[in-house]
Amino acid sequence: EIQDNWFFKNSYILDFLIHVYVNGEKTALEILEQQFEKNSLVHHLKGEKMKLEEKFKNGCMEITNDESFGQEILDEVLKKAVEIKTYKGFGVRIYEDLLDSPIFKHKSNMMFHLHKELLNESTQNVYKFCKDYKTYTEQWIKSNIVKFCMEKHYLTNQIHERRKTNIDFVIDTVQQESSKAKDNKSNVSAWFELLMKNLTEGLFSEELMETAEVLKITINQETIKNLDTVSQMMIKGLNEEKKSGKPKGYTFEEITGILESLSFNPIENLIRERIGCTEQCPFCGCVCNLGIDCDKTSQKHRVALHRPKGLSGWSHSDSGKLVSSICSTDISTEKTYILPSKFNDEKYRNFKDVATDIPDWEIKTTTGDGPEFWHRLFAMHNDAIAEMNKLKPADIPKGWLEVTEPKALKSLEIMYTDLSK
Predict the structure, then answer these.
(1) What is the mean pLDDT of residues 200-217?
(2) Cys bridge to 400: 14, 159, 375, 383, which one at CB 3.0-4.6 A?
(3) What is the band of 55 on the pLDDT scale with cuts at 50, 70, 90?
């Protein structure tokens, strides 16, 4: 039983209040902590983990898909467009540069260089030139075109610069079309169609057009989510191509392959332009000087300066010695000849009747024994040509043996200076 005068001491009340306060604060903090944990980011992430992981995975897949499409367009269309543009019209450019070169500027330039090199050629090559001008000269032109392309890395530099220019063009086109698509809010199909039109216009590549059509079918708003990702992937790849540096120096065979693969083959066209008529004098083998094909009637074959017939293997039937005379002097004599390759018989004919017997050739009478160039060349190869044909060397004038190379070159310069007038 509690007495009426019972009461709590002040110290007890204070302790009690402190106890209530501490426990209340502790409980409140626990409640707040629970509430905080419930509403915290960590708690949210734990609860949404599966959803967030799925969303992140889908986002990565979208980026990956867009990058994949960008890479596919880069590989299948853009790089091929760069290569086609690089080589389009390239043959014409090379051809024009060749025509402006010292060797091929005019036919007379070419013939001068061609003959000049004979002074240092083997007997086999000199004889081949005299017997089969067309084959020898075509090979010589081809060889000198390739040498031109190798000098100062002409072909390597041209291809490198053209590729860089065309890569820049493709990058600009991609950027412009992507920017237009964003401004106009165009769908990806419209964007791709305009991009392909601007890149392939004028290229006339069926393979490239077919590839573009196949990609056009597969590309739509469902397959491409972010056009910027696709464009950036393509531009990144193109910039890497541009930084790849110059190609290595090409070999003779590689250059030949590149030139012959061009739609405008500079080798074929230069041969056609510069080789002219390839008919050879039926006696000495000198090629017709005309720069066009002769019709054998109004335009007869002719040679300004004939050469010793022995260079083509002609010999005297009685002595078996090579012939040192030239046909343009023989036609004013009583000499005779046999020409089975022309007439298919062994009949002797008179040189003075050549105009009648061989009407497609116009051989004018000359005096003397021809240019010193031919004298030196024949003197150098007289013995070897005779041995090749199982004949005897020609009896040549002593002066021919004394013609120096500078004299021969001076004679050659006069020959082709006169022809170019």
Answers:
(1) 76
(2) 375
(3) very low
SS3 per-residue string spanning the chain: CCCCCCCCCHHHHHHHHHHHHHHHHHHHHHHHHHHHHHHCHHHHHHHHHHHHHHHHHHHHHHHHHHHHHHHHHHHHHHHHHHHHHHHCCHHHHHHHHHHCCCCCCCHHHHHHHHHHHHCCCCHHHHHHHHHCHHHHHHHHHHHHHHHHHHHHHHHHHHHHHHHHHHHHHHHHHHHHHHHHHHHHCCCHHHHHHHHHHHHHCCCCCHHHHHHHHHHHHHCCCCCCCCHHHHHHHHHHHHHHHHCCCCCCCCCHHHHHHHHHHCCCCHHHHHHHHHCCCCCECCCCCCECCCCCCCCCCCCCEECCCCCEHHHHCCECCCCCEECCCEHHHHCCCCCEEECHHHHCCCCEEEHHHHHHHCCCEECCCCCCCCCHHHHHHHHHHHHHHHHHCCCECCCCCHHHHCCCHHHHHHHHHHHHHHHHC
Place of tokens 């006169």: 418
Question: Which residues is 301 bridged to in the sheet?
Answer: 361
Amino acid residing at 10: N
Q: Amino acid letter at 63?
A: I
Has this prediction a pTM greater than 0.85? no
Closest CA to 365 of 335, 390, 392: 335
Fill in the amino acid letter for 194. L
User: How many CA atoms lie less than 13 Å away from 60 in the CB half-sphere?
Assistant: 6
Residues facing 338 on adjacent strands:
348
Give me the long-range contacts of 164-173 (CB less than 8 A, separation at least 24).
164/242, 166/81, 166/82, 166/85, 166/86, 167/82, 167/238, 167/241, 167/242, 168/242, 169/85, 170/78, 170/81, 170/82, 170/199, 170/238, 171/235, 171/238, 171/239, 173/198, 173/199
pLDDT digits (tens, 9 = 90+) for 129-172: 999 999 999 999 999 999 999 999 999 999 999 999 999 999 99
Per residue in 348-399, pLDDT tens? 999 999 999 999 999 999 888 889 999 999 999 999 999 999 999 999 999 9
CB-based burial label for 389 (10 Å; 0-12, 13-18, 19+): middle
Identity (one letter) of the amino acid at 222?
A: E
- 208 CA to centre of own chain: 19
